[in-house]
Hints:
The structure is a single chain. By secondary structure, the protein is mainly beta. The chain folds into 2 domains: 117 residues, Carboxypeptidase-like, regulatory domain (Immunoglobulin-like, Sandwich), CATH 2.60.40.1120; 91 residues, Cupredoxins -  blue copper proteins (Immunoglobulin-like). The termini are far apart.
Amino acid sequence: MKNAFLIMSILLVSLVSIVPSHPARSALRQDKPTFSPTGEEATIAGTVSFVGVPPEPKEIDMSADPICETVSPDAATEDVIVTDGKLANVFVYAQTGEALDKYLFDAPSADVTLDHKGCRLVPHVLGMQTNQVLKILNDDPTTHNTHGLANKNNDWNQSQMPSAMPIERRFALPEQFMPVKDNQHPWEKAYVGIFSHPFFAVTAKDGSYKISGLPPGQYAIVAWHEKYGEQTTYISIGRREWRTLDFGFKATENRQP
């Protein structure tokens, strides 16, 4: 019996030693160098336009909190902001690319801020990197709640009194896009894009954006809007190149529920 057990153990060890490792686990174990700028990096910039008649902003009923009615009496929805045919709050980012597969990117030391201000979450759309600090402030004279509806990272739900210390959160995994809401004030909403790299931007009121420091190579560039979905363009960009890349969304197409 002892000999049989010994033979069986040797066979099991042999089988384990010849089974190939799982490719995903092997990839996770591979060390990548941290990216360091060389001066050969490129820039993409452009404008996101809106074609058609944009929906009219809707007045927000803040009567559930009289303080909010006082600090923000004329509040209106901001999911679609169009100025002179240009669309704000569009998230433009590199989705795939040679450099993204090849390198790791250090998280910035500067914090990213999400502010309860005027009983709104400001900014409405923001981006950050993994392991960067998201600092949540309450600048209003009323209590707010911040609920991050994370899918890949840890969900959290925390209330914050007026003038309370900032709430700080870090996220280990990329996530596009994490909705954030206030359970006490359901009209307060924001979206946070979490990336493993710094190649992203949010369009300003004039629809403009710029992504700098992009290593030369091939990329899939995505423009995402919370109501009108996303568009993807594939580009190849050279050393020190400045590329203009515009997008356009239509009022009748790609509308999200």
